[in-house]
Structure formats: structure tokens, C-alpha cells
Amino acid sequence: MTSIYDLMTPHRGTSQPRPAHHLIADEVIDHSSAWLARARSEVDASAGLGQIQTTAVSRHSQRMLATHAARGDASARDATALLAALRDGQDNGTLAADWAAYLRDAAERAVLCADILRQRGDQFLEHEAAGCPPVLIYDYEKVMDGRDMPHPSNYELLRILPPPGVSLDDTRRPYVIIDPRAGHGPGIGGFKPDSQVGVALRAGHPVYFVSFRQRPEPGQYIAFVTRTQAAFVRAVMRRHPDAPRPIVIGNCQGGWATLLLAATNPDLTGPIVVNGAPVAPWSGKVGQDPMRYLGGLNGGAWVPMLLSDLGGGLFDGAHLVQNFELLNPSRTLFRKYTDLFRDADTAAARFLEFEKWWGGFFLMTEPEIRWIVEQIFIGNRLVKNEARIEPGRPVDLKAIRAPIIVFASHGDNITPPQQALNWITETYTDVNEIRIRGQRIIYMVHPQVGHLGIFVSSQIANKEHTEVASTVKTIEALAPGLYEMIIEDVQETDGRTHFTVGFAERSFDDIRALDDGIADEQPFAAVARVSEVQSQIYAATLRPLVQAAVTAPMAEAGRALHPQRLRRALMSSRNPLVAPLDQMAQKLRADRHKPAPDNPFLAAEALWVQATEQAIDLWRDWRDFTREVTFFALWSTPFARAFGRTHETHRTLKDANELRALPEVAHALLKIDQGGFVEGVIRMLVLLAESRGGVRRDRLERSGKVLSLDSPFAELGPEARALIIHEQTLIATYETNRGIEALPRLLPPDQREKAVQVVQFIAGSPDEMEPHTRAMLHRFRSVLDLPPEIRHIATDPLQDTPPAPAPADKG
Q1: How many CB atoms lie within 10 A of CB 539?
Q2: 251 SS3 class
Q3: Which runs of E-coded beta strand occur in 179-221?
Q4: Model pTM?
Q5: Per-residue pLDDT for 490 more than 80?
Q6: Residue 271 preceded by cis peptide, ω within 30
Q7: Is it the case that residue 27 has pLDDT exceeding 60?
Q8: How far apart (Å, rounded) are the C-alpha atoms in residues 156 and 209?
Q9: Residue-wise pLDDT tens digits, 608-622
Q10: For the residues of 14-32, what is the DSSP string, one character each?
Q11: In this model, does residue 805 exceed pLDDT 50?
Q12: CA angle, corner 214, sides to 210 and 219, nearest 5?
């Protein structure tokens, strides 16, 4: 150790010789190299920013040019046709009559449209006065109330009562549906016959709905909500002791709530379905997905804190609804009403049905909205494994043991596929880690349906959700891994389309291919840190003043005067100027004067609507373009990058060697020579699936039937069977050859032929097999000293085995 005296007189020190001149020069060179490396890194980052900005400009420009040019051409053609129709009317002398007929019709439609808005206002006030109950079309009964829990919340567990003609089987897997609490109220998952609730009921499953009241309980936290939902699932399990564990479906923000539930209570749920859930909100493609930039442009987490303080400690969900509407203003603020005006004679029921849900605004406590913003949308902490729902209780998505089914859509501009799926690649090292942890993750990306359509559209309900309902049991027979669910239309029979479902094995590269890299996510780290600083400054300076100034009546007045509520209330019958619309509309409906369908002024109206809608869309596209460019200009500077470096995403992931050293792998490999008929058959099935790279629905159904209903598999029960599938998957993954060579030690000579026949029965006809599947079967037969011929096994070889007691494994 060098002393102070050695530093002062280095020629006297023996332990620390004076560096040679060339070493000093090397040190200077090293420092220079480090400085140059940092400078080069900044240059590369700036070049990357330039590339991102160029990509954004290019994509926005190309999309605006292509979209609006095509729409402009269509409008020009429509305008040409309109002018021709007007000239024909003038030549025929009918133009004045057409104009008079149109004016009368437009005036009548204006009254009818205004009356529908009056009905919406009345419906809104009645719904608010009733406390905004769920908008379910089904009858229900309350099973549990979150107010009665040790940690009270405003959530309720409802049991859906089956409609006439529908019978339920209490031994079938129950469904628990969690709707989003994102400004609107509950019920969107079951306010149509063709919905998630309707699909499950028609299949005979008991259905439970997780609802919530308009106002949260005082002092409510997200942790209280998660505890309440866990208690609900336990209650459902107690009510159906002979059924498999419930399947839990989470819609939108209910999706990440479902992941929280499954991660903090891994012993509770069966498969979980996550529909359009923004789990990785920093993700997206450059040149699209504009909603992810709002946090960096609108001020961060201190804004909802301020709004909560102005609301007397409650955050008004109407703010969130207003943000949704501004995302696509031509649809939500213009076209919705012009369509209503156009179809005023027939559109009332459909319009009011949707508006009952869309116009129900719910409240959150300040801690709830702050947790959501800081932990998920701005902080991205759930993906980084830094989220905590309460002190000392982190949330690790790797802890989930239930199969996860993820729905996403390319047409979703609120939760694009990257936000719904990228958490997988951020949470696990690779597919091998998913297998090691015994996890099954299945995803499906729809080509075009919008955000609400994922869990509202009858098309989705009759296809995707129906297939999930009928495939859940077979999904649990899959070997652990990552799969894409592929639905193919095969035939139309008796007016109904029947589908074939397959599960294709996927790698992380397949998910990453949906994105355009993660370089565009780096600026969000600076946003997250700035948001934290701003929140601390606000809490220490302005917050005490705001909280002291706002009284309960002022908070209620602020909510009542919110534009979303005010415009509905002012158009209700309680407004004396609006009340007469009821009688006026009744008289008009009894004596309507509709113009001829070919009236040119109807076409002129449609053309005006089309042109105005395009103008609003052009403004929206330009807004999104400038918003994205501004975001990267603000948050991609060298200073912002340095400031946000501590908050950059990515959790520490294990490498391949560390994965092999995990206890789960070591434990499974120790059992490579252990087992019997069950282990031997499952190992061969896993090896076949590995060689195919995917599993067709018919093969999966045969596998599910054999592994759940046939002896000796039926005696295992779902949990023991899942454990064996997990262990055999690890053996097949890490010691493929040894696993095959060990088959004779698992299967005595008198069981080998039947074991291979079971595997061939599940694999299907040899004529439909891929060459590598046939090669793997030949290898099995060779190792087991069986004849090489592969015959078609049409019937279940185990169906003559004495039946076991009926297991609780109904999907």
C-alpha cells in the first residue's frame, strides 16, 4: 500500500516503483481511447436518432400520401358522379323537388337524431343515479363483495345466470372474466349474446364476472384489488370442487391485472387469457402507435396526481375516455354522430346500447392511478421486474405457472401487438427458459380488428374465443414452450363456419419480427426519470396547496362539469329546451317523409361527411407525426440519454449455460432413466412435437383425450400430468439423444409395442406425417427393438384398458 510519504517522495518507495515513461504514455492513450469510445457512442446514438426520425417522417409521409390520395381520388369520383346527377336533375326538372324533399328529410332526421341524444342523456343520468351497474345483458347474482374483505375494495364477484335454454355443468371448468377499469365501467365482455360470456355459457361452463362499483373504497390500493380478485378465484374453486381450476380472462387493463393475479398467486388459476393488454407500453413501431408518446409530452405522472387532487383524492375516468376519443377524433367525435344522423330511423337501439357502456365513467383513488402510470405506462416496471404491488412484494411474471393465451391485433392502435407480446422476450431468456419453467405461452395476432373488437366483436367471439373455449383442455396437453395459435377456415356447414386450429412452435425471433427493434424505446427511460422528479417536486410544493384548497363540493362540481358528462346531461329531458323533443320525434316517426334513395342531395351529404372526415383524419395524422418527431427531439438528446440511463429497460436474463444449471433442469435430467409407461409415452410425444415444430388441433385433441381419459394417465390428475410433461420436455430439450436411448429402460418389452402404438395413434395417419416425424418414429421403433413398419393406428390402443374413475379434467 502506497503511503503519503511515498507519494511525496516516490524514489524512496520500494513497494510502488515509479512508472516508466512508456507506461504513462499508455495510460494517456487508454484515457484517450475511452474518451473517443464515449464520443463515438454519442455519435452513433445521434445517428440512430437521425435514423429513427427519418423512418418516422418516411412512414408517416408515405401512409398519409397513400391513404389520403386514395381517399381523395374516391371523393373526386363521387363528386363527378354527384355533379352528373345534379345536371340530370336540372335537365329533368326534378332538382327543386329533390332539394325540398331533402330539406324536409334532413330536418326530420335532425329532430330524430336530437331525440336519440336526448335518450342518451336520460340513460346517462339514470345510469349514474343507479351507481353505474354493469351493462351485462345477462341476469346475475352477487357472490362476494370486496367491501367485506380484510383489505376492502370496490370489486364484486357476480355469477352469470344462464338464459333460457342454456344448461350449465358445474363440473366443467368455470370462467372468470375481468373487465378493464380504464375509465369505463364493467360489462363490455358480456353485453352482447356473441361475447366471451355468451361463448362460455353456450359451451356449458359456469361463468363468473368480476365487476366493480363506480367509486373506490377509501384508501384503496392496487394491492387490495389483487387480493380481492384472488379471493374471488378461490371462492369459485370452492363452489366447483369437482371442476378444473378456473380459466381467467382479462380484457385490456384487466389483462395486466390478470397477470398480477397469476404472478402473485401462482397456485390459483387455470389458463389465463390476456386480451389486448398493454403490458410493455414502451414498445411499438416507429411511424405508428402514437399513444405511447403521450406520457413524454403531457407531463408524466404528476398530471394524474394533480387531477386526483382536484377531484378530492379521486381520479375521474372521464379523463381517460377523453384521451381515447382524441386518439381517433373523426370516428368518435364526428362520424359516430353523422352516422346517427344518416340512420336516425334505425340506429337508436345500437347507438344507445354502446353509449350506455361508453358513457359510464368510473373513479380511482390517487394511489391506484399513480401506481398504474408509474409502474406500467411510464415506468415500464412490470416488464423490468421492478414492479411492486405493496412494499416487499415484487411481481415477477416468471412466477406464473398457468398457461397464458395472449390476443393481439395489428388493427389495435391502443395496444399494438408489440405492447401485448414484447413482455415475453423481456421476461425470459429464450424459449428454453419458458420450457424449463414449465410454462405454456400461446399467442395469436389478428390482422385487422380494433382494440374494442378484440373482446367485443361478434366475429371474434364466434371464432377466436370459441376456439379458445373448446381448446383449453388440449392446450394443457401441450409441452411447455411458445406457440402461435393459427385458425384456418375449412368449411361452411349448416350456415356455420368450422375451423381447424393448429399450434405452431415459435421462437423469440418470431415475436421480435413484429417490431422494428428496441432503439426507439431508449428515450422512454428519460421520460420515466423526469416523471419521477416532477412528481416529487409537485408533491413537495404545489400539492399541499391544491389539497387544502379543494373541498368535496368543489370536487363533485368539477366532475359534473367535465365535458364528457356535461354534454350528455345538457341533452337530457331535464333540460327544458330538450324535453319537447320526445313528442316531436313521436309525431315524426308516425309521419316520416323520406326522400327517394337516388336523391342527389343525399349523395351530396355523404360526400360532405366523407370530405370532412378526411380533413379531420389529415389533421390527426399530422398531429401524430409532429407528436412523434417532437418526442424524439426532446428525449433523444445526449443529455436526456444520460439522464435516463438509470431507468433503461431490460431485466437481467440468464444465458444458456445458466439455464442448464437451473435446479429444474438438473432434477429432470437425474430422472432420465426413471419412469415407466406414462413417462415413456409422454417423452416420445414431446420428442415428436419438437421434430414437427407445431401441433395440429386434431393431434392435440387425441393427445388430450389419451392423457386425460385413458388409463394409466387418467389416474394422474391434471397437476401430476403437467409435472411429468414438464420433466420430459426438459429431457427432450437438453438431452435429446440420451432421452431416446433411455426409452428401453422406461418401457419393458411387453409394453413397448403398445406405447409406440399410442404415440402413432396421436400422430395420425402416416400419409399426413412430415418426413422428420416418420424418421423420429422409425428411431423409436429401432431403439425399442420393434419392427420398422409404421402402420396407421385408427383407434385408441388404450380404449380397451379398464376405465379409471372419472377425473376432474373437463375443459
Answers
A1: 13
A2: strand
A3: 207-212
A4: 0.85
A5: no
A6: no
A7: no
A8: 8
A9: 999 999 999 999 999
A10: SSSPPPPHHHHHHHHHHHH
A11: no
A12: 90
**177 within 8 A of 138, measured Cβ to Cβ:** no
Model pLDDT, residue 455: 55
Any alpha helices (H) in 428-580, and if so which ranges?
431-436, 453-456, 458-460, 466-475, 508-512, 523-540, 542-549, 552-560, 563-570
Helix, strand, coil shares, percent, the chain, to 5: 60, 10, 30
Q: Which residue has the cell 359510464?
A: 360
In degrees, rounded to 5, the angle at the alpha carbon of residue 402 between the alpha carbons of residues 400 and 408 is: 90
Distance CA 185, CA 208 (A): 16
pLDDT greater than 50 at residue 575: yes
Specify which residues 364 forms β-bridges with: 315
Q: Is residue 418 within a helix (H) or strand (E), and if so which, with residue range?
A: helix 417-427
**8 Å CB contact between 659 and 701:** no
Decide: helix, strand or coil at residue 421. Answer: helix
User: Which of 761, 748, 318 has the alpha carbon at shortest distance from 568?
Assistant: 318
**pLDDT value at 804 more than 50:** no
Q: Residue 465: what residue type?
A: H
Taking residues 361-387, what's their average pLDDT? 94
Rounded distance between C-alpha atoms, residue 724 and residue 716, angstroms? 10
First to last CA, the chain: 71
Four-residue CA torsion sign, 504, 506, 511, 512: negative
Q: What are 739-774's pLDDT values in tens digits?
A: 999 999 999 999 999 998 888 888 888 877 888 888
Residue 684 makes CB contacts below 8 A (sequence gap 6+) with 743, 755, 756, 759, 780
Q: Which of 15-24, 139-148, 487-496 has the lowest mean pLDDT?
A: 15-24
Residue 498: its H or E element: strand 496-505
Q: Which three cell numbers stand for residue 602?
A: 343525399
- Return the bridge partners of 160, or none: 140
Do 232 and 157 contact (CB within 8 A), yes or no?
yes
Full 3-state SS string of 433-460: HHHHCCCEEEEEEECCCCCCHHHHCHHH
Here the cell at position 240 is: 366447483
Amino acid at 468: V
b/e for 56-85, b at 16 or more Cβ within 10 A? beebbeeebeeebeebeeeeeebeeebeeb
Per DSSP, the three-state class of 316 is strand
Residue 707 contacts residue 479 (beta carbons within 8 Å): no
Largest CA distance in the chain: 118
Chain centre to alpha carbon of residue 619: 29
pLDDT in tens, 102-123: 999 999 999 999 999 999 999 9
Angle at 459 between CA 454 and CA 463, to 5 degrees: 90
Q: Considering Cα of 404, then 405, then 409, then 412, what sign does the dihedral take? A: negative
Cβ atoms of 460 and 443 within 8 Å: the answer is: no
Do the Cβ atoms of 244 and 718 come closer than 8 Å?
yes
Q: What strands, in cross-sheet order, belong to the sheet with 272-275?
A: 140-145, 155-160, 207-212, 175-178, 247-251, 272-275, 404-409, 440-446, 481-493, 496-505, 694-696
Residue 33 vs residues 29, 36, 42, 573: alpha-carbon distances, Å: 6, 5, 14, 77
DSSP structural state of residue 52: H
Which whole number is the average pLDDT over 308-337?
95
**Sole residue written with cell 387480493:** 227
Q: Which cell goes with 123?
A: 340513460
Closest CA to 496 of 164, 194, 700, 204: 194
Q: What is the pLDDT of residues 221-253, one digit of tens each?
A: 999 999 999 999 999 999 999 988 899 999 888
Average pLDDT, the chain: 86
